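Problem 12. The chain below contains 386 residues. Write out its predicted structure in token notation.
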Amino acid sequence: MSDDNHRIATQVIHAGQSPEPRTGAVMQPVFQTSTYAQPWPAKHTGYEYARTQNPTREALERCVAALEGGTDGVAFASGLAASTAVLQTLPEGARVVCGDDLYGGTYRLFTQVFRKAGLQFAFADLAAGDLDELIPEGTHLVWIETPTNPLLKVIDIAAVAARCKAIGATLAVDNTFATPIFQRPLTLGADLVVHSTTKYINGHSDVVGGIVLTASAELAAQLRFVQNAVGAVPGPWDTWLTLRGVKTLAVRMRQHQENAQAVLAWLESRSEVTRLHYPLRSSDPGYAIASRQMSGFGGMVSVVFDLSLEQAERFCASTRVFTLAESLGGVESLIELPASMTHASVPAAQRRALGLEDGLVRLSIGIEDAQDLIADLDQALRVAKG
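Solution.
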């Protein structure tokens, strides 16, 4: 069937897939093999070695590419492997402009791995300020998360894309938080979209993976070269689990969002809360842009409590329904403290300067009963305050 003729709730189930031709199997089979038989030397059926081609992986790549409105998807063994591949397409000494609020692992990759390899990185608040100044001529790549992690700042994708086009830069958008259900950066002018498929795309906290999507044949060819040359590919079972998870993405994202809104209403009533971050709250600084480029937002909530670091740690450790764990986007609710966990690799002074306070807690709201989630946060807050 033609993926282009269907809405996204249909695409998550059918895009890029059809019944297996030999048996008629409805679900994409797991092609658990490392190599493929060739009828003649250097003549094959399109499959020669599983690092280069795997039908299970290709089904996932086609599916997520269709969801993002792209033509190609290139899957990797983790979100950071996907990010690495994007940087490995750049020329020696390339200049990269990044948003200033990034996932800690991305920040570490850029500053401690690729900076030593000769790439130049500048970090700027691309949610505010003059883009012509923040993204100068000579920039090769602009890398943004929107909404950002963990402060949920919103960056105007179309405006950044226009600046990139004017100076010949490539724009890569990490769309892990919003997913294509609620935001499609390629349609707003981005060149590349990156996902940690570990998170919402898979949605069940049982696999690690990443993917890059594009509508550019040239960029796709570069990424496929890196995928094969470096070999950081996901195994067939990981891709199969992720593809299975994608099928419920639309219904999961709606429930994540509904639960998040219920938790937000409770948090807004609490005197211990000093600041809330959620882009589709009318009082949020990014609300106007978010309303324009997003159709919803799902389950990520960041909240600053009037708590010391010790109290915030006790709060996170005292939940019973929320699980204290890194990662996000699974059906179960997770809670974490960026200062001690996901953003511990960012120097403390820099964290605080960016607004990552010791009392900042990031919630990944799952799909449990919302009232149970609220009751759990309530009792943990009482424990934290002693």
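Discussion. Residues 7-246 form a domain with the Aspartate Aminotransferase; domain 2 fold (CATH 3.40.640.10). Students who got a different answer should revisit the alignment rule from Section 12.3.
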